[in-house]
User: Fold these one by one.
Assistant:
Number 1:
Amino acid sequence: MTDPAPTPARHVAFDWGGVFTIGTFDGRSTQNVADRSGVKVERVRESYFRHVRQLEVGAWTLPQFWTVMQQETGVQMPYAEFETLYLSSILDNLPMYTSLAALPAGVRVGLLSNNYPVVSDHLRRDPRFARFDTLVFSNELGQKKPHADSFAALEQAMQHPAGAVAFVDDVQENIDAANVFGFHGILYHHERHAEFEAELTAWLNGEN
């Protein structure tokens, strides 16, 4: 009788923006709003970034956020058109999705993302996200990275101690916070994807 394969001792969790996307979603979405409306991008971004935390912690719905932005910027665009434009601002980092699908069976996979209402629902519907075992979104948690509560929620969702989980993010501040909490932080940039794959594979194999 063949012995069953051992359960992997190490697991991995990811950020979304800047990891599963190329560049920043916020930068692209505000540029798209400016291009569509004819309002200067600086004016759009000033309003957007002043209020975006309300989305990130789930205090506002996306329609509420858009109402405030319209009032402050003068952009004339129906909410439905804005939502479509907003979601179309996602630029997938396809190599990361390939890496996600190739993770060994038994490796538990999580996501910890500072994210927004509607966008988080959109991601859940993506069939590629079926490989994730757990998704932690700031807008549903009510707290965002790099706060320790975010990493506590991730540890609980992963069902493994932080020391058994690598955390992949494109922001050094978040990596630093993850390391302090006990995760194995891996800083990511899409232009160094092959290096990332090698580092993650070595860590999952217990080589560092």
Number 2:
Amino acid sequence: MTTTEPPAAKTGEDAACCGHAHGHGPGSGAEAPETPRERVNRRWNEILQETRVTQTGVQILFGFLLSVAFTPTFRQLETLDRGIYVTTVVLGAAATASLIAPVSIHRFLSGQRMKDEVVEAAGRLMMCGMVLLALTIGCTLLLILRFVVPGVLAEVLVGTVMLWFGLCWYALPLRLRRRADRRSRTARDA
């Protein structure tokens, strides 16, 4: 299960399968085909890098949220704002759990020859954690902007920012994925 496993020897079938499945056929100018073991190792390393980035952000945000309750201004918050705060802290805790979970899963299952399952579970937890992180950021913005900006402008600004998150974090990747799938199907049909 370690990421330092030596790559398995490529067989003609593995290379052809992997090259075809990812649109990396010979002479396409793309990356060389990879074996299933190389693929799972690459995916695991990518998840580790993504986890490092998101863990830092969620931990800083969560630490900030925890400190808010101990400020003198916190006592002045209205009931709705306290509800938003509690929701934000719970979302932040859930995001932290989801984004740190791949480390725990890896530690518990290390050496069990379950890397495919670990990578799949870690990928799903990362996606869940990203949704929770976006919601935490949105609620944090709402809490701060309700305190700073008068009227419904706070909600409008938060809605705009959340729309931007949705476009950057979800819509754009899905669009790029669909485009790659279409390109792959076109190349396969040709």
Number 3:
Amino acid sequence: MTEVSAVEEKRRRDVPVGVVMVGMAAIVWWPAFTLGAWQEIFFDDILALWAASTAAFVFVLVERKPIGGRLVRAMLLLLPSLWIFLNFVVEDETTDLAVAIVDLFALAAVLVGIPFTLWVLVRIVWPDFAAETRRRTKWLIAVVVLGVAVGALFLGINHPHFLTCDDFAISGNSEPAGCTPEPE
């Protein structure tokens, strides 16, 4: 193999890593930003997670792999569904403990569900990705995506420093508490 073709081959192997990294970062930034700006993750983000994790759940159940590992992945993919189910079961008039349990499932659905669902989706799209990708590269992806999420959370918390109330209104979002009014 010539030096040019070896470099080209390495570059081709790097492309999926870049696609995965950018795709995951693009998905996690908005829920992290809303958590910072509004102190909550919007229902549409959780329902999008539910839709993706439900589809991934079905795929994991029917894929041709040993049942042991599939069951663990399938159960983790059900976290968003369990959160939705608990919302139907636990009503507003119930105890603080029941509400805390629902909130705990919501937190687990987001903190575990988003990255885990993204990883399963990557494995569905590129079945050999995990086997062909070095551990160091996987950690790089995780650190970059986590960095984007933390950065978006920080930006959401500090939105008054670079966004105005009008920016939120024009984009179709409600104005978060503490937003900066448009200068007159």
Number 4:
Amino acid sequence: MSEIVYLRMKKKVETTYLKKVNLKDIAYISTTSPLKKELEKTPIYRMTKKDRNVVIVDSFLVIDHLNTHYHNLEFQLVGPTHTMIRIQKYKKSPNVFMAAIVWLLLFIGAAMTIVNFHYDVSMQEVQQKLHYLLTGEQNQYPLWIQIPYSFGLGIGMLLFFNHWFRKRINEEPSPLEVEIFNYQQDMDQYLTHYENPLDDDERFD
């Protein structure tokens, strides 16, 4: 009777350029077979110069490859059906000058957006009328309303984005993180669909 080997493909892994990928690099293995260590070291994929930034390894090709080497084992897939390998050829050191320019542009853009929004809704006139309703006096610059409002605007943005620099205020993701996650999911789905040639097995050992 064949021993069962359960494979669970990893969703994403990162590797260096032109590196040989073993089974343990792209999948979790669960089995009572004494061949587990050997299985983990089984070469699955070899990076070549044709590979760019992303390689999709489909579980069908992995199991088909393993079946040719281990006839006495039965492989069963659990979970994801593929692994996305992101190739990092080199890492660039952070450019402080470029980061400062981007930060400055974002700061100016956000400030202009807030200013234009307040101008469009006539926020100053609203605060002047609110001051008149509460005090019965006319005041062009009701600072006792404007100053707390300015602080509240900044604090509200911190609470909305759920971050203070690198520190998270609570465990909930911010709306920006959710949008980035959804974008990454759509990107991964696109790459999985268009970068998954099942008939290209020439680089399998």
